Amino acid sequence: MLELKDVDTAYGSVPMLRGLTLSVRPGELVCLLGPNGAGKTTTFMAVCGVVRALRGAVEVMGKDIGRLGTENLAALGVGLVPEGRRLFPGLTVIENLRLGYDAVSGRGPNFETQLDKMSNLFPRIRERLRQVAGTLSGGEQAMVALARALIGEPKFVVMDEPSLGLSPKLISEYFEITQEIHRRGTTILLIEQNAEMGLGIADRGYVLVKGKVAQEGDAKELLSSKAAKSLYL
Amino acid sequence: MAELLVQQLVNWITLGCIYALLAIGFSLIFGVLNVIHFSHGDVAMTAPFISLALVQLLATAVGVSGPAWLIVAALAAALAVGVIGIVLDKTVIRRFRDAPAMMALVATVALGIVIRELIRHLYPQGSNPHAFPRLVSGVAFEVGTVPISWFALLVVLLTIALVALLFFFLKMTPLGLRIRAASEDRVIARMMGIRDTRVFRATFFIASAIGAIAGLLFASYAGVTRFDFGVMAGLLGFSAAVIGGLGSMPGAILGGLIIAGIEVLAQTFVPDGASYRLVFVFLLVIVVLIFRPAGLLGRPVMEKV
To answer: Which residues of A touch B (CB under 8 A)?
Structure first.
């Protein structure tokens, strides 16, 4: 589903990712952890093709993202949840969801059915469909951002720090939904700062420090590893 | 006095509609590309020249002439200017969408000069003013003793129809939804599979074609067109967009009506006001920029980092 091979990126002259190598196989839930400034969001942007790799290769669904372009990613069945939700604030919830659906399904005919499914999965947004997204609470926006990524039934979802700014109750709810989506067969790359919650539901994990993988392995082992804790926690 | 007021009210609404149509183009392009297209007025004012050239061509090549053919030529000119807008976006403006604002400003101002000079040199006797007929003539009805022309009625109805069509397009069609999404967040729009090029193409076609209609009405209202009318049309349209709030469609309409209102008030109530009307208009622009930099209906301006 995803392969990053020896990837370097930089913002101007400041290096961000330094030889980053990681992979996500079909059916997996992989958690990418790291402290602030480790390069987590840069990794997300590199996966999306928004940040170009100066060296190495980023392959999503077997395609080189540099050649593919960000706008073609969704059509391959990739759903994206960017950091800070990044909903279209002036558009209604249903319009945000429509864009998410059209992106993955290619404007397929089953929007209403999918909308029903999302309303069942996220009961909080059911009554908010006609509301302008910018007026929703942080928690509701987080749910809409996830629903927007899922409504087209993508095969692979990449989530960038979805728990940031959510209350503990909402974080639990959010991770339960993420786990449920994974159980239904969706492959997920979860980029997180919340190590316990992230690794708690993941199959495998990577710990990113200063743009490189400092440790990787089975999620449960990482969670109990002293080395990982010293690197990250 | 009542007759004068009714007459000036008609002038205000007519002129306000023309400025609103010009301002809509500025706002639409700024909303989507975050670029102020300073040559938009010049692009709009190519329409009367294209229209005159088509009328001439129809008369000499096909042997047809008359008011109906002027309308046909005007419609064809609006479509042609829409295509010109796409070409200018692709060749020039799009290259500056992520550049510092100053670069886009210089590039679009330079583009305006290029357009004006091309008209001046390529159009027969391009340096001279060219008479531009009323698109429709005659009196539609009278209010008291004040005649309301078909032209004034056409301007108002056309503006209402275009604004309604634009509103419908932006709110109700998939492409309209994508344009609105791209105008809010271009990076996320791309993540949602929205292709910049299609959005920009559609935006420039619509903005330029609506601008062309405003240009045709502007020339028709003045009864004349000149190669450098684009400067004034651009300044007035841009000012209207700024007063209303760049990027806001209702703001563009409000701004157009306010600017026209000030012009008409100055002409009516200030001695020798016709000479000073632009002083009042641009003073208002300065006042709005000082006290409400985002315009009357605009969202607060945020610097891109």
So the answer is: 48, 50, 69-75, 80, 82, 86, 88-91, 95, 98-100, 102-104, 107, 148
* Measured distance CA(A173)–CA(A124) in Å, rounded: 11
Report the chain B residue with the minimal C-alpha distance to residue A158.
B191
In a domain, B45, yes or no: yes
- Tell me the C-alpha to C-alpha distance, in Å, between residue A10 and each of A13, A135, A203, A213: 6, 35, 30, 16
* Inter-chain touch B191–A100, beta carbons under 8 Å: no
The reply to whether B249 falls in a domain is no
pLDDT digits (tens, 9 = 90+) for B193-225: 999 889 999 999 999 999 999 999 999 999 999
In a domain, B274, yes or no: no
Token readout for B16 is 């306000």
What's the ipTM?
0.91
pTM for this model (two decimals): 0.88
Residue A194's pLDDT is 86
Residue ranges in chain A assigned as alpha helix (H): 40-48, 65-68, 93-105, 111-121, 123-126, 138-150, 168-183, 195-201, 219-224, 226-232
Residue B62: which domain range? 2-230
Task: List pLDDT tens digits, range B265-299.
Answer: 998 888 888 888 889 999 999 999 999 999 999 87
Structure confidence by residue, pLDDT tens digits, B58-84: 999 988 888 889 999 999 999 999 999
How many structural domains are present in chain B? 1
Length of chain A: 233
Mutate to test the interface with B, among A71, A94, A107 (most CBs of B within 10 A): A71
**Pick from B184, B195, B196: CB nearest A90:** B184
Identify whether B38 is part of a domain: yes
The tens digit of pLDDT for each residue in A16-50 reads 899 999 999 999 999 999 888 899 999 999 999 99
Say whether B193 and A75 touch across the interface (CB within 8 A).
yes
Residue type for position B151: F
